[in-house]
Amino acid sequence: MSPTQKMKTFRLPVALDSAYGQCPGSTLGALSRTSCSTELQPAEGAYLGKWYEIAKLPAQFEKGSCIEANYSIRADGTIKVYNSEILKGKLRSIEGTAVVQDINEPAKLAVSFSYAVTPYTPYWVLSTDYEHSALVYSCTDVLRLFHFDFAWILSRMRSLPPETIQKAKDLFTNSSIDISKMIMTQQQGCDPEL
Fold first, then answer.
1. Which residues constitute the domain of residue 56?
2. CATH number, domain at 129?
3. Mapped to the 3 state alphabet, what secondary structure does 16-35 carry?
4. Does 71 score more than 90 pLDDT?
5. How many independent structural domains does the chain possess?
6. Is 135 exposed, middle or buried (0-12, 13-18, 19+ CB in 10 A)?
7. Rg (CA), the chain
């Protein structure tokens, strides 16, 4: 191993430790969850289109308001993911790619963005009615030292009735997903042209 490789190997745990301490949603210890009940048939195309973020577990990469995601099919069959938010008065967006990794589990997608440390991260649709709301969960293990949990309540509109939000939270809880730190996403006063 060259001196440069040794230095990179040495710095990685320090960098990961720093990242762990700064990132919301991170938990010390390896993943204990290996499966989750999901539902989705993306071949129908019903999940595609625009979704607004109603609530989420805090994420370092999402700090703005008016957060939305738009999903469409590319010519190569992958799913184009276009996420946007308003942060400090400016539109911020990123494009990614989602793929179905196992055709027998079409609700368990993997998503990659240009800034991601890992090539693909899980994007599991736990529940959706396609027309009103969707519940999404993601958990990524980092060297079995710690993991990141993310969860989102999405809607086709910029708001959901409180009882629908509570039912969504109950579904996460019943799936043994800790949402005690879940926060609402600011969707009021958003430009409809975003």
1. 3-184
2. 2.40.128.20
3. HHHHHHHCCCEEECCCCCCC
4. yes
5. 1
6. buried
7. 17
